[in-house]
Automatic annotation (TrEMBL):
InterPro entries: SCO1/SenC, Thioredoxin-like_sf, Thioredoxin_domain. The chain crosses the membrane at residues 233-251. It holds the Pfam family SCO1-SenC. It comes from Cupriavidus pauculus. Residues 1-20 form the signal peptide. This is Thioredoxin domain-containing protein. It comes from the Bacteria. Residues 35-202 form the Thioredoxin domain. Keywords: Copper, Membrane, Signal, Transmembrane, Transmembrane helix.
């Protein structure tokens, strides 16, 4: 092969399309948060509070609604933000101080009473403004797994990191230990939380439709309003349904009138 032929062969080889190796993306973490309204939490789940005392969830919710916030105490971002949002909303809800109780529950069985006690002062100012009780709980792996199954939560340890991927949210529990309402996100409407606590105190449970609405509608803490685009979408769904019913009724009426003998 002469030099000219070799050069042409090289150019032709370089011009061939190359197949890039597929980009290997890590699998998304296995996590979910789907509490079932009315589900009874296991009565025998026992944890330790930040003072090292054994405590059962049913004892914390026996005389008042319990705001149950899962997370872990070593988390410096999401979990702290969620708890800050809960306490801020409780402070703005203007409920009596004895109307509720908050329990943060570590979903990491390696965390200890000392870990919980070290984290609690972080919430001191917000807790003083809210005026209620805060219990920072830890437990063994079996107890934590049972609670997470009961509240419909799944979490996953992150590879190559001492962190846990988990959804952001919490549940409101009735005094007899049933899930009344759930909230997702990191900032929460104080009026909605107040209503949830009052309903839980009365033993009432939110319907699946209410839960769906709360998940679909985003509360903007900057404006103090729900996202209007989503509300407009909900209005359009209802208006479209009513319009379809009206058109169907007119069409059916017209057919009946045309079918009558003159």
């Amino acid at each position: 092969m002469n030099a000219r032929a070799a050069a042409l062969a090289l150019i032709a080889w370089l011009a061939l399309p190359t197949q890039a190796a597929p980009l290997a993306l890590p699998a998304p973490p296995d996590m979910a948060f789907a509490p079932i309204p009315g589900k009874q939490l296991p009565a025998d789940l026992s944890f330790r509070d930040d003072d090292g005392r054994p405590v059962r969830l049913q004892d914390l919710s026996r005389d008042r609604p319990l705001v149950l916030v899962p997370g872990y105490y070593r988390c410096t971002n999401l979990c702290s933000t969620v708890m800050d949002g809960v306490l801020e909303s409780l402070a703005q809800a203007h409920l009596p101080h004895d109307a509720w109780r908050v329990a943060a529950v570590s979903i990491d069985s390696h965390e200890t009473v000392a870990t919980a006690a070290a984290k609690k002062p972080h919430y001191g100012a917000l807790l003083a403004a809210a005026g209620g009780d805060l219990h920072m709980l830890t437990g063994d792996a079996g107890t934590i797994d049972a609670l997470m199954r009961a509240i419909g939560m799944r979490a996953s340890p992150l590879p190559d990191a001492d962190q846990i991927a988990h959804p952001a949210g919490f549940v409101v529990v009735t005094p007899d230990g049933r899930i009344s309402r759930s909230f997702s996100g990191v900032r929460f409407d104080a009026a909605a939380l107040r209503t949830a606590i009052e309903q839980a105190a009365a033993g009432r449970v939110g319907s699946p439709a209410q839960q769906l609405l709360m998940r679909c509608v985003h509360f903007d803490p900057q404006t103090g309003r729900y996202t209007m685009t989503i509300l407009d979408g909900i209005r359009m769904v209802f208006l479209s349904a009513f319009a379809a019913l009206g058109i169907g009724w007119l069409w059916h009426t017209g057919r009946r009138q045309r079918g009558r003998p003159s």
